[in-house]
Amino acid sequence: MRLGMIPGGDSGPAGDRAAALAAALGALLGTTVEVHQAADYRVLLSAMEQGIAHFAWMPPLTAARGVASGCLAPAAVSVRNGSTSYLTGLITMKESPLRTLSDLRSVRVAWVDRESASGYLVIRAALRNAGVSLVSAFSEELFVRSHGEVARAVHTGRVDVGATCFNFVSGTFEIARSGYSAVGGLSNDEIRILAHAGPIPSDIFAVQRSVPPSVVGLVQSALVDTRPLKVHELARGLAHADSFIRPTPEHLGMLRELLQLLEGTRGSSILPPGR
């Protein structure tokens, strides 16, 4: 069996975590589980559709497409800071002259991936709906493969702004959890959020539809119920999650709405700057 992954900008540690999780899954299931490296999220979804990959950690848009096509089933949903959703936004350094959306003129930007909801698609849709011309706003666009690399590009001055994900402390604009805190070299006090949008449903651990229900049950029990603990802890490390829950109808509904948004059948609203 194969665990599908895509390489990230910080792929060394991520690759080690994926290999460790694959080994633990193999021990749990009594078979060999190998890591299948896909070039990007579309290729990863194709691997699931063809039965080349049997498990995959998938961002929400790719997951939504796979659920809609019927090729995969969500086994577990990531929980971060007590939530199964998060926000996307544009960040810049606090000392940057960029303070509002009107300042976005011929700036350099770092995105995660063209299939990343929080690292590209949702914030662009929200900017467009807010009247921002994406052609004139960005003079150079880099795709750096991970949220950590987005933060690193902003921090080092390689770009002026970057798209990433975060959660706010309930009822505030204080960042509680971000996609870059562990690897981007940035602290929350060093950045300014120009604008944010959302919520976006959390990523999922997906299982290919041909996988027997008994195997799905073992994997879900490991991720959600911590039986065994090793698989749970390795999956948490790979996903940068606090815990996992079983998929709910509400979460599946959010995935459908995300797909509708990014296929152009719903609008996306930009929210006021967080700081």
Key features?
alpha/beta, D-Maltodextrin-Binding Protein, domain 2, 2 domains, six-stranded mixed sheet, 9 helices, 13 strands, 27% strand
Give the helix level as a range of percent.
Answer: 25-40%
Shape: globular
Major β-sheet annotation: 7 strands, mixed
Number of domains: 2
Radius of gyration: 18 Å
- Portion in beta strands: 25-35%
Please name the CATH topology of the largest domain: D-Maltodextrin-Binding Protein, domain 2
Q: What is the mean pLDDT?
A: 87
Number-wise, the strands total 13
Spell out the blueprint of helices and strands.
Blueprint: E1 2-5, H1 11-29, E2 34-37, H2 41-49, E3 55-58, H3 60-69, E4 72-79, E5 85-93, E6 107-111, H4 117-129, H5 134-137, E7 138-143, H6 147-155, E8 161-168, E9 175-178, E10 191-201, E11 204-208, H7 213-225, H8 229-239, E12 243-245, H9 249-262, E13 270-271
Parallel strand pairs: 1-2, 1-3, 6-7, 6-8
Antiparallel strand pairs: 3-11, 4-11, 4-12, 5-8, 5-10, 8-9, 10-13
Helix pairs in contact: 1-8, 2-3, 3-9, 7-8
Structure description:
- By secondary structure, the protein is of the alpha/beta class.
- It folds into two domains: 2-81 and 202-261, Periplasmic binding protein-like II (D-Maltodextrin-Binding Protein, domain 2, 3-Layer(aba) Sandwich), CATH 3.40.190; 85-201, D-Maltodextrin-Binding Protein, domain 2, CATH 3.40.190.10.
- It is 37% helix and 27% strand.
- It has nine helices and 13 strands.
- The chain has helices at 11-29, 41-49, 60-69, 117-129, 134-137, 147-155, 213-225, 229-239, 249-262, and strands at 2-5, 34-37, 55-58, 72-79, 85-93, 107-111, 138-143, 161-168, 175-178, 191-201, 204-208, 243-245, 270-271.
- Strands 5, 6, 7, 8, 9, 10 and 13 form a seven-stranded mixed β-sheet that branches.
- The longest helix has 19 residues, at 11-29.
- The protein is globular and about 55 Å long.
- The model has no long low-confidence stretch (mean pLDDT 87).
